[in-house]
Automatic annotation (TrEMBL):
It comes from the Bacteria. Thiamine diphosphate binds at residues 84, 125-127, 161-162, 189, 298, 380. It comes from Salipiger mangrovisoli. Keywords: Isoprene biosynthesis, Magnesium, Metal-binding, Thiamine biosynthesis, Thiamine pyrophosphate, Transferase. This is 1-deoxy-D-xylulose-5-phosphate synthase. It catalyses: D-glyceraldehyde 3-phosphate + pyruvate + H(+) = 1-deoxy-D-xylulose 5-phosphate + CO2. GO terms for molecular function: 1-deoxy-D-xylulose-5-phosphate synthase activity. Residues 329-494 form the Transketolase-like pyrimidine-binding domain. Binds 1 Mg(2+) ion per subunit.
Amino acid sequence: MSSRPETPRPATPLLDRVTTPADLKRLSDDELVRLAHELRAETISAVSETGGHLGAGLGVVELTVALHAVFDTPRDKLIWDVSHQCYPHKILTGRRDRIRTLRMKDGLSGFAKRSESPYDPFGAGHSSTSISAALGFAMARELGGSCETGLGDAIAVIGDGSMSAGMAFEAMNNAGHLGKRLIVILNDNEMSIAPPTGALSSYLNRLYAEAPFHDLKAAAKGAVNLLPPPFREGAKRAKDVLKSMTVGGTLFEELGFSYVGPIDGHDLHQLLPVLRTVKARATGPILIHALTKKGKGYAPAEHSADRGHARGKFDVVTGEQKKSPSNAPAYTKVFAQTLTRLAAVDPRICAVTAAMPDGTGLDLMAERFPDRVFDVGIAEQHGVTFSAGLAAGGMKPFCAMYSTFLQRGYDQVVHDVAIQRLPVRFAIDRAGLVGADGATHAGAYDVAFMANLPGMVVMAAADEAELVNMVATAAAHDEGPIAFRYPRGEGVGVEMPETPQILPIGKGRMIRTGSRVAILSFGTRLSEVLKACEKLEARGVSPTVADARFAKPLDRDLILQLAQDHEALITIEEGAVGGFGSHVAQLLSDEGIFDHGLKFRSMVLPDTFIDHSSPADMYATAGLNAEQIEEKVLTTLGVDVLNKRA
Ligand SMILES: Cc1ncc(C[n+]2csc(CCOP(=O)(O)OP(=O)(O)O)c2C)c(N)n1
Ligand SMILES: CC(=O)[C@@H](O)[C@H](O)COP(=O)(O)O
Ligand SMILES: [Mg+2]
């Protein structure tokens, strides 16, 4: 399944002796230090062969070793926030033999996944959920709950970027109030995917500046009485532990946590005694502030602007990625370039991203208009309402989010944007299946949840030229909220419009005229539909094809005409049931069209979470590729599929 390595795999004599975390308990602290080196080398080697999230995992190698050496997983619940940093954890928890299948079909997930291992007590992919989940485990333990692996300590490891989200604070607020034993490790590498923005990041910097860990020995002198009560006794006895700790962090303390740190998250001789003391003595919620470096120990990652956040397959020696040549511009880039072009002539255009300036392409616009691009941090809920406020204040905000992350801000879309009919422009990137990130990142639901809302305009680009037109259409639409969706990856290579065209709201377009069956496509499945038509023509079936462009408002005239002129109507979209096809079905039902015998089929994503694989394979699993469209047409028309006879 994995490709052949070009660089010899690293020698890992100690790691070879580790099958489960229990094996770490037999190693001395010095051996654990050596093990960490081997684990780092193994992680780099594996990701060089598979691609995936690299920098975050390299930054938590020592933390991973220390946590598994000190705590008793899987009885103690180790919950990784986002869990993009969990590859070293997977290697130590019985999955080393499959680590080179990461993110591939039938291989290991790139994230923590309950169904994959008892050492993954809580799955993730989205950020800032770990403290809530850990608190749930902690309270279940207090209430006498049970699970197969038992219930011990609950430990959340959360990054500085993820800590800025409201959910993390909601959890700390609750944890401080409940006062039960709960361990939170704040893994502070001063990075999100991009450099973190916001006041919390500055606050964490100040904490570090006030008590940098290299001054801890001095700071610790006489600090016993400042330590939170559970630590005082232990610290008096264990001077070495005391030397690696200081106290501060008023924000966390005000929320009811004991605060320990900052400590050097790469120094096992600090991490191990601190964790052992916490394990032995903590009574209530405690936050350990560990300072780490994203990409640690791998120069090409450490020196890159994103500290090696995610990589395709790469050459271990040079860090160079193996990229396939591109045939067409990426949708994200087309969006960003068009928006930047429009922003140059319209000073009211501004844009909001929730910690994804690079992923949404808004870093391009920020280069030219830094004052009109806002990175609000991982805070989708705030990002949506902030956009609503900007719109109410007369600006033209483009709220650019991945479909999957916009889910977080849904109440804000309803309550703050739609009900108030505020003209927020939602640029919904990564719409549809995204491949290796799998189910947590699939953009499956946005059409359903956006098109349900009164007054919301919902568009999907069929290709990159259409996306240009939709960005312009959104910019021109001041009457209320409007959304346009586009997928991850490259366009189809169509000619780009010289001047963006403003599309008439609620009007689709005819692509080709045929007979008997009409296929009404919403979004980028159009290219697969056209491929299917070529094959169908060879079989004597000539479908009509239209691009709906809008799921809301629907092009009633077009749909009713197609229904009237054809024996069968098939809709297709890259979204879950409840989206475009459902709205078309509702219209046809309202108009009594079914009474006249129209054969109607709606091709949507299946009612299941599709595991990580290549996008092409995922679409095949979903039944949405050209061959499957061809088959759907034939079966709908009653053609014998095997013999392909009408
Ligand atoms: C709700 C949500 N929004 C955005 C993302 C995209 N994302 C994944 S990792 C990441 C950065 C996280 O930063 P941090 O928690 O500091 O972890 P680090 O990568 O620095 O270890 C972001 C923005 C996400 N996974 N979930
Ligand atoms: C872990 C996470 O949420 C992001 O890193 C995500 O994997 C980015 O996806 P893209 O590669 O599509 O930007
Ligand atoms: Mg970080």
